[in-house]
Protein 1
Amino acid sequence: MKKIYTCIDISSDTIRILVSEYYQKEVRVLAISSVRAKGIKNGIIVDPDSVIERLKLAIEDINTRINVSIKKAIITIPSNQTECTLVHGNVPIVNEEKMVSKKDVLRAQNSVINDILPNMELVNITPIDFTIYENGSEIETIKDPTNRICDRLGIRAMTVCVPKTIIANFAKVVEAVGIEVVDVVLSPIADFEEIANDEFKQTNTALINIGKDTTTVSIFNKGIITNTSTIKIGSRIIDDDISYIYYTTKKIARKTKENFGIAHPRYASKTETYETRDVNGKMISINQNELSEVINKRLVEILNVAKNELKVLTNKQIRYIMILGGITDMPGINFVIEEVFGKNASSYTMNTLGIRKARFVTISGAIRYFERKIRLRGKEYSMFSSDDVETLVHNKARIGRSDSIFGRIFSYFLDN
């Protein structure tokens, strides 16, 4: 079975839809659509009708590109008001052999669900370890209890819960355009799934994702999220400053930042300029070095606020700090990060063909996370029917040689 997945990532700034094949542990982009979002503030849906309108545009675009209508999708959920809780549970082993099966492991995980508050929705549960009991006595604590003999199986796990209203609001706008929500993935968990290596999974790691309105700060201990917080400061304040100082519209300010901005004045030209217009239509010339000073001041402010939030979230030593978000595509960003956090911090570079911009980290990680969850349950799954797959196979577009049929059939690789 070809593993074809769709993910919808709705943020304050942009709505993104990714259709990809998961093949040989890699995400292979089939198509991606990206439109400016409306109706979302600080990561929360405030105007569902505006969100639906923009989402329809993204869906029409993606359907045109793949010549198939998407019907199912994973969606990402912001970490606003997320609660991470260490929980314990246990279940008896009732089969004749007293041997722990995968079903028993799932039963143990489900035993902790009763502790979740009625207004919260469980979006993730990660086992930390399991305890083997015989005759009421604790025998051993292990990572994988499968096929072990015991009377009772205990579990220690981390649960991640989000207010039901947040999930319901995101699910409703997606379902309103005819898409079935197959699963939800918390954005910081998706981020970690994308950037994590073996070293990150063995120590304490912090992720800082700078968005348009908010910045999300998350702590992971040996690959398990232990705390997360959303602070109301984002890259919008840079656009606001540029707009105010140069008397331009917010749209022009953003375009100037993205096309001409340098994160650190040390690496900006003192002679190069950018020509644009102010709010009255008059031509103005913006010096790159002066612009970089404006950008740098606000970037340092954002990073320092996030740095202080790290101290609130954990008192443990953090080995690695990874800075994410579209702003990290800006030249010179790593020099700013190092000045604020030191050498144990850096930005992440996407290396997936077709989505090599930092703004696609979350949507790619969500698909990786979903595929891993399906695989751990021993299942095969695709979001496209056999008829849809047949249509994709007979699409005549080609993108070069590959061992995978679906890695060859699409000629378009997004506007990134």
Protein 2
Amino acid sequence: MPETPIQPADTAWLLTATALVLFMTLPGLAIFYGGLVRAKNVLSVLMQCLAITALVTVLWVAFGYSLVFDQLGLRVAAESPATWIGGISKLFLRGVRSDSVVGTVPETVFVTYQMTFAIITPALIIGAFAERMKFSAMLWFTGLWATLVYLPVCHMVWGGSTGWMARMGVFDFAGGIVVHITAGFSALVAAVLVGGRHGYPHQPMPPHSLTLTVIGTGMLWVGWFGFNAGSAVAANGQAGMAMLVTQISPSVAALTWMAIEWTRFGKPSVLGFATGAIAGLAAITPAAGTVGPAGAMAIGCASGALCFVGATWLKRWGGYDDSLDAFGVHGLGGLLGTLLVGVFASSRFGGQVEGLDVGRQLGVQALCAGVTIAWSVAVSWLLLKGLDATLGLRAEETHERHGLDISLHNESGYNY
């Protein structure tokens, strides 16, 4: 019998949150990204999201869950209790039964909930190389990246008290480091190494359906309540506050983006508003369990402004083709939220943590973010270089010009 009884309310909430987070990828992210690409590449993006969901599910069951949450981790050093990866006693979910418990919920539900995070994280990277990467290269990159980047970082932050970053006291409630920094900075590497789309930046490449993008934005926004409030792994006050700030931040960020765009260009765009909302959601993710409404407003305002710069001026200055702004929104938004939670988690600024040493916490947040960026960039660069030398990363030029839907999948979602 489990030592801690299963709580029906907590279980019901986490079941709901699990469905919401999976809903973020299928169909939320798929539709959001699908609307942003050109019509000839829509099915390729949808296929990538579907395939990533299936592939990561299998990897998570085989070894992912064990390497993150098995407390029999490998030690960084003999004298240190901190770990960078978990153990192997739960391979293929060995020992996970209907009566096994994590906290107050069935372990089966916890396994599935965490699986949905592992699914959406590499799916975010699609936005950096959309319309030009080979499907086979994408599959290999996803599998290797999830294993070598996502699993170690996830363990260090969420794998229990032995995790290296957890032991340092890092604040990352729902994935600013684990999800957005890993995916966002890896996306920047992918955009640079894969190269720009043919004709970029001189040839206009407008989204084929902003209607789909707005629908996808709404799905992501609603699903994010499961992403953030579900991370409490309980139906409690922390989940309630996480839900509240998850609504505040994207609202402020979207309005900030709109105001900047309206001032600069004379008209507000629906694409800008949608992108600003996603930026605010990414930025509040690491802070959702520890900041209050005032902190959420500050984080939303800052992320709307920073991510606008990242998706416009910075991208032009850098000369890279981050097609759907995976780095500009998720990388920069996640980094900003990871740093600002070190300030706004303090009760002095309306947060939930009493007596927080803001200076020390900022140092912890910056160190953990920096290590994650360095690891994500280095591993992604090596993986992409290796795949380019073996499989090749890019689709053939003729395939890109005809569109990946027909060229790689022999199908088309539209009649031309």
Protein 3
Amino acid sequence: MAQIKAFNGLKFNTNNAGDIKELVCPPYDIISEQQRAEYLKRNPYNVIRLELPKEGNDPYVKAGEILKQWQKNKILQCDEKPALYIYEEEFIAYGKTYKVKGFICLVKITPFEEGVVLPHEFTLSKAKTDRFNLMKATFCNFSQIYSLYMDNGNTRSKIDKLSKSTPEIEFKDNDNIIHRMWTVTDQAQIQSICSDFADRKLYIADGHHRYETALNFRNYLREQGIAKEGHPSDYVMMMLVDMEHPGLVVFPTHRIVRNLETFNSNEVIAKCEKYFDIIHYNNLDNMQSKLDEMYNKGEKSFGYYDGGKGWTLLTLKDINVVRELLPELSPASQGLDVTVLHSLILERIFGINKENMAKQINLAYIKNKDDAINSVKDGDAQCAFIMNPTRVTEIRDVAAAGEKMPQKSTYFYPKLITGLVMNKICDPEL
């Protein structure tokens, strides 16, 4: 099953680079060009220069050059001893304070079909090409893949004991998220944790593109005769978290429909009556509470907004409709809210097929509920579907069935910060 190990993490030498708070950044794919410039204005050594390169005629090659220079100047240095890195985020979600803790390690790469590391969402090829070009130029993992594992509490209790001391790093970022990290170098403790995973599978929560890229990169090096079995490229950096950790929070990703040639909201509601119980509310104030109520009951519900002051609650009448329509899917996939929405409404009623969805021609994804609603109010979208979050157990069950959810089915919050620790695979010349 999963093979994990410690590694000599590549970290900022804050004596030369500056305050760690000014050196890290959120994941590259949620950073705007303006934000990127602001990070570099505060500190030119911010990791965004490597993770999201924009300089030179070939930004990827330039990133590789910058990485070498920073190592030479001891801006970045590898730890002397192999370590596991315990990482905790403390944050506020839904009005409550949460803490989620896991550990960063290396995981041996295996194809998905081997059933050791399992995906839960489909990916886009454009993003994978970008990450592959960066890996070819730098031979480095700058950010961690976020994965979950099934635990009986054994591993979690071990890392809790190992992180009772004052953290090596602690700071609050611009989003008021507190980040903490502890470095574990004791070989007996490392071996004890690594051995726990001999019979475990890993479920990717966030970072599907990076995992597939790591697999492609390993295969590329083997094809070029640069690497063979046992090469450092056989491993990729991951953050591992117990799937039943009380600090895990998943946000929904909402859908907006736009640019349909013909759109009649009354006809949409009329066609939905075949599959859904429909309740109309005259103002938006109770939307979240009603969706929460249906979520807690286990119903397949979402909010429909087409403009104006009111909204409509759509609740699936009978799950057997989806089972009959999609018999090839497992019950886990059939029961997802996004499956219900995509198959019964987006495809059947709007005529938006899977290729259209993947290319985001008539469908777009928005994380913030108010932004989705405002896109309709402003005329940028014809209607919006406000979703409930996917449950962590649903992610596990879909992945275990060997299936994938539609894109943007999950949004684990908060994202892992980039730059606390990195994995230098090897020098490109080797």
